[in-house]
Design a protein that fits this description.
The chain is of the alpha+beta class. The protein is built from five helices and eleven strands, in the order ααββαββαββββαβββ. It folds into two domains: 162 residues, no CATH class; 29 residues, no CATH class. Strands 1-2-3-4-8-7-6-5 form an eight-stranded antiparallel beta sheet. A hairpin with a 2-residue loop joins strand 1 and strand 2.
Length: 195
């Protein structure tokens, strides 16, 4: 296996892992409807704001839409820490174009960093061309399938930085608390709890 194939496979694995994490966001956000939603939540005991938008733009995925392409759908999730830092972001744009899958793949190969070559992925739904680039914090993919007289293209950009860390509730409480049998516990000088 060449170095380039290893990098592409690594990128695809990162996409799969991040996709799994992001697949939980609709459940967490209760975003069963297709309307925009903003919700305050807690991750790792730190407050965050989760936003869902039922649309995304070329700027969100950091890839241009081909001239004459028809936008079919999109979505965007963003998780922002209390300090305003984006800790998780996922944007997807789906479009159709009159270009062949190979032509669309060629155009996106030229636009992605490192000019990745498309991987052919065969599955139950047929053949797909997949381009993927990524690093520790960002993954971008282009998935192209043949469609009547052209191609269907899904553009995805996912970002993840360090998740915020808060203080667990048991460490935020005062110097005394109740133990497992209801006995009053006090924090000792070494920081541990004692009866």
């Amino acid at each position: 296996m060449t170095h380039g194939q290893t990098n592409r496979r690594g990128s695809l694995l990162r996409v799969a892992a991040l996709g799994l994490l992001l697949a939980l966001l609709p459940v967490l956000c209760s975003a069963s409807s297709l309307s925009a939603k903003r919700e305050n939540m807690t991750i790792n005991w730190a407050p965050v704001v989760v936003e869902y938008e039922p649309s995304a733009t070329a700027q969100d995925v950091m890839l241009p839409l081909p001239e004459g392409a028809k936008l079919v759908g999109g979505l965007r999730y963003t998780v922002t820490a209390e300090d305003g830092r984006v800790v998780l972001s996922y944007a997807s744009v789906t479009l159709t174009t009159r270009r062949s899958p190979e032509q669309a793949a060629g155009e996106y190969t030229a636009k992605l960093p490192g000019n990745p070559r498309p991987e052919v992925v065969e599955g139950k739904s047929g053949k797909r061309l997949v381009l993927a680039v990524g690093n520790e914090e960002e993954v971008r993919t282009v998935t192209i399938t043949a469609q009547d007289g052209g191609a269907r293209v899904e553009l995805v950009r996912a970002l993840q930085s360090a998740l915020p860390q808060g203080t667990p509730p048991e460490l935020r409480q005062g110097p005394e608390r109740r133990g497992p049998r209801g006995r009053m516990m006090r924090r000792g000088r070494e920081g541990g709890m004692r009866a």
